Amino acid sequence: MLGSPSRRVRSWLTAVAVGSLLAGCGSSAEEPAGDQAKPAATTDVTVEPIKASKELTDTNGVKVSLKKQPERIVCLFALCDDILTELGIVPAATNSTLLAHPDFLGEKKSKEVDVIPGGFIAPEVEAILSHKPDLVIGLGDTHGKLAPALKGATTFWPMQPETWEDSVGYLRDVAALTGRTAEGEKAERTFRTKLAAAEKTPSDKTALVIYGSDENFGVATPEGDVAASLFPKIADYPWKSRGVEGSYSLEEILAQGVDVLFVETMSFGDADGKLSEKLAENPLWSKIPAVEKGDVHEVDPEVWAKGRGTRSLGIVLDEATAALR
Fold it and tell me: Which residues lie below 8 Å from residue 232, measured CB to CB, with a gap of 6+?
């Protein structure tokens, strides 16, 4: 069953051109060399034009209004970092480690971005405001409580992504507010092309994504997990949400005959070791087909669980489709 630490974490897990327009946010993000070298996909997709705007109602109905295009953006969760990277922007400060990933800024350049102290759950308001942000982007159900303290000093934008469609919508919204419309359209097209290719040749294998720090694991379901929302059309993914309190037992997972298993190991305090290694202590674990065949993949939770934007989801698709062949 899903233990309370994992449940709390999943509640907040369940969120490309170079230019100088937002110079106040730092140097512009660079497109990874690996992306530049990849051949263009042949699958045609349609992307609606993005129109620049100073005010909008976002993909989840939240109204956002700015006096001017933001020049200093503080990110309180990784979807914000993902979106800004796609738009060629570096945040003024961040609250995640996603930027250190080689497909984002990389370890060296990410160290140039200040980290907001206080941790993900309780980032320090004074530290946020010390960066004089024009815009602060956070996860609604976690950082919404900061809104009163930030009111009058900056604009706070609570996002609440649950599916990949939400993430694309937020990408388009941020592109409109920052004036990075061409970059937003390019990022959306790149992601949709990759997704369309994966959906065109789906795997008949049964897949599963689990997360946790110990034997109290959880199952990522398409209704509230952005990465998992990609799976129903690229593989057999028979996992439905059972609400906040519900999850799946190893007995149920064994009965489904999982062929490919993706594991997101979360860290809590002094907890260490891989989740798959801890679950191996349960005799049922070794009977799962994916475990028997050695088709268990420990994936990067910064990308798979926290990133949630089109760049992270592109990495998820690459890794998932390779494993599902």
Answer: 222
